[in-house]
Predict the structure.
Amino acid sequence: MNNKFIIAGVQMNPILMDKKKNLDQLVQHLKLAASNQARLVVFPECALTGYCFKSLEEAIPFAEPIPGPATNHLAEACRESNSHVVFGMLEKDQDRFFNAAVLVGPTGVVGKYRKVHLPFLGVDQFVDSGDLGFEVHDTSLGRIGLNICYDGSFPESARTLSLKGADIILLPTNWPKGAESFAEFLVNARGLENHVFSVAVNRVGSERDFLFIGRSRIADPHGQTLALASSDREETIYAEIDPTIARDKHIIRVPGKHEMNRFEDRRPQYYSRITEIECRTAG
């Protein structure tokens, strides 16, 4: 059975507060990537709306529920192209608002994630902290986990998804200037330490004096870069991946002499001290 498929990361330049044009771009890029045999297409954080809002009041008109008009529109494009898509948007849930990433397939919304770790930057200054935790979504392609941007700075985020069985961890981002080290090192590290495919898709361009640095990246479970985008151009990167590789955590470098298992070699009884220290500090 062939489990391999092509994943695409679309490094684009969303336009702040222009949902219609951004949605049209998402559909066009999705169709183009699918024509290049991509089965999973990933877009940046807040690709539907832009990111650098000055207040919640300014952002509210551009938020919508999930499922909603945008996810319905993209589900139709997924049906036509037999693909899945992940993109960032602002979610409205009654009187609450979230920075969200949505996984959509031919049948509609497969899953969503609400950003847990919120930096003092852009719309994250005003939205609610995510309350759904870290869930893994089963698809015909594999087991997919979602984080968003700053979440990648916290190793617990990716580790939780990996312990729940994720084959692939997707990280839609809006890395601004100053996040170069994150783009260079942490995406691969998250893949290596959890033995999963690690994919970060950033934006380019500028928005209200913030310059975004691109450098979208696809890394394999050994921490090797499979595809890397430029720092300043709109482009799509591709890589062929096999999710089943991420499921075998037993790594054999020299049989009987150099072997390791990323999960069985863990010692959680010692990690509990992190919680103990945090509780003492908070108290």
